[in-house]
Amino acid sequence: MPSPWGYECQGNKCVKEAKTGVKALVTLNECKLTCGTAGALWPHPENATLANITVQFLPSGITFEPTVPTPVSPLINEAYNLFLDTLNRYHPHYQDGGAPWPEHWDPAVSGHKVHVKITVREADTWLTLSTDESYELIVSTSADTTTATITAATFFGGRHALETLAQLVAFHETRDVLIIVTDALVNDAPAFPYRGLLLDTSRNFYSVAAIQRTLDAMAANKLNTFHWHITDSQSFPLNLESLPNMAYYGAYSSDAVYHPQDIKHLVQYARVRGIRLLPELDGPAHVGNGWQWGQQQGLGNLVVCVNREPWQEFCMEPPCGQLNLANPNMYTILGQIYQEIARLFAPLDLFHYGGDVVNLNCWNTTEEVKSWMLANNFSLDAEAYYTQWGTFQEKARKLLTLGNGGGEVPGILWTSQLTLKERIEKHLNRSLYVIQIWTSGSDPLITDLLNKQYRVIFSNWDAWYLDCGAGAWLGEGNNWCSPYKEWQRVYDNSPHDLAKNLTKSTHADLILGGEATLWSEQTDESTLDAKLWPRGAALAERLWSNPSSGWQEAEARFIHHRQRLIQRGIQADRIQPEWCHQNDGLCYK
Predict the structure, then answer these.
(1) What stretches of 221-276 show up as alpha helix (H) in DSSP?
(2) Could you say which DSSP state residue 98 is in?
(3) 147: β partners
(4) What torsion do the CA atoms of 463, 466, 411, 434 make, to the nearest 10 degrees?
(5) Model confidence, pTM
(6) Distance of CA 130 to the CA centre of its chain
(7) Over the stretch 229-258, which tens digit does the pLDDT of each residue have?
(8) Strands annotated E in 374-480
(9) pLDDT in tens, 132-173
(10) How do strand 194-200 and strand 184-188 relate by DSSP bridges?
(11) Which domains are seen in the chain, by residue range?
(12) CB neighbours (10 Å) of residue 108?
């Protein structure tokens, strides 16, 4: 039964009205597609001009003409196939393998062609911090053909343009066809080169399928870095060919393991979607289970304080564990791990060392470490241990470089006691390290880092920790970083504004971008999508567009984009009643 309601774009809002025959009203999807300066596009492009007219077509009418360097050809073809799959998913009765698109009774619809032309200039096929992700998209319609012309410097810009083009298409609710805007001009580029999400797969295990789904959603939002916190003190689920004992002793079960072929598959899966897989092997803290086999193999204790109690005295959360600075075999094993990681994630353009919440009491109450310190003429005060932590980090950097075939890889470290202003320049070369800020957005440490010319990535917990707002898993009450970080707070957290408020400068050249984190003490893949999405989309627009306006301007597009994520198979959380989606602007407070 046809709806008695239709929509008209008024003041950049889709206004719901009764069909009286007086006005030419359109469906909700068509109105969303054409209303406002950016229609339904997410994240908001740098510059966009859209027509307010659409034309109907079927997926069978789409053709593709790539002009790209040879190395780019397989990637762009696969990205185009993903584009087609996205359009099929707009059909409400989509099933894997294709949507039930019948030949239309209207020959103008069946005969309309959508010709996608894409030109990529450069042959680069791997993402780096200097990759040009910009693109231009021109849509024009003449007679029975709509032509979408994409021009980009790199594959990554071309892929982003295909995502934008997919968002200029929608399902027509009453005619069982697709619609596309007749004309559009989009010139676009990201505000930040690093736009990330962190997933912790050590506290709880996530299947490859769940990670793929996360990568799909990231691609739909033009996020480009999947920060994979693979291991921690709870588990070591990474199966290494040269060190099978790590997963044997460290995985929750034989099924909760990532095999080498899984890693290689996900690296390629992500690349086609414009995303780097950034591995993190945390240390010297956040290690434990998986490392216990050293003594049995004649290598001594590779770690100390493993599962030690009472845990409150030796670590931030149970179970405890830190690398054993007194055992040279620890470095041998660490080097082997780095070598395999460098091979599995090749080519590495970034690597995350972790490096936070080291507990000095763990080392200082372990006789083996204390004896080693004294035997080497080190005192047992805090600064002596910080010095040894710094020495460890330099050795780790050299081991990673060696494991990477001699190629220096920029390293990322969490803010910690080692990154304080009185220590950081002693231990961390600003040209070799990027510092990821996980403390609050008002932390004076941010000022120190920027004034000392360190490159930074923002992940301030008071806005971008997506695991906050649950009940405490250690004791009672709320978890430590409560309250819940609502999408509005995620959206309005601007790294440039935080820097300017603290230092009177945006330090634009030093702020690489930002990252939302999902630590998994209270999350597994059954709740993954709802924890990440659509709040991850709010992060994405902040990092792609860095809008000067607040969340209120974005709300209607955001609610509609959440619907689009659902169409793509992402179980994104509800933000408002459906009534709000159908009545733009009436749910503001």
Answers:
(1) 244-250, 260-272
(2) B
(3) 115, 140
(4) 0
(5) 0.97
(6) 18
(7) 999 999 999 999 999 999 999 999 999 999
(8) 411-414, 433-437, 455-458
(9) 999 999 999 999 999 999 999 999 999 999 999 999 999 999
(10) unpaired
(11) 5-188 (3.30.379.10)
(12) 11
